[in-house]
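Changelog-linked ticket: copper (II) ion example.
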Amino acid sequence: MRLLAFSAIAILVIFATGYLLVSAFSRPALPKLPGNVIDIRADMGGFDVQKIRVKVGQPVTIRLTSLDNSHHTDGGGKHQWAVDELNASVIAPPEGSNTITFTPARVGEFVFYCDICCGGRANPTMQGKIIVES
Ligand SMILES: [Cu+2]
C-alpha cells in the first residue's frame, strides 16, 4: 500500500515537472496572418533566418519577433529589420512581434539589418540577405 502511494506520488511529480518544463521553454505560437508572411526571430545572437526570397511587385509581410526581454541593456530587448533599398523598416518590442507589409519595387540582392543592438548594422550577425526575384 505504501509502495503504491509512493509510486503514485512519484509519477505525479514527474508529470508536473515535465509540464512545467515544457511550458517554461515553449513559446505560444504566433497567430496566422493573411498573405505572404515571412517570420523572422531575432535575439542578441542574430536573426534566425539569414536569407529570404521574395517576388518583385508582390506584397510581402515581415513579422519580426524579438526573443529578448526588456532587461537587456543593449537596445532594451528591441530588434529591427530594415532594408534601405526597399524602404522597409520594422522594430519589434521586447519579447513581442511587429509586422511590416511592403511591395518590393526592384529586383536585386539587398542586406537586411538591425541597427539597434550590439554595435548596430556593423555587427555581422545582425544581418541577412533579401533576394528580390522577377
Ligand atoms: Cu538587433
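Closing comment: Example verified and attached. Strands lie at 37-43, 46-47, 51-55, 60-66, 79-83, 88-92, 97-102, 108-113, 127-133. The chain is about 20% helix and 35% strand.
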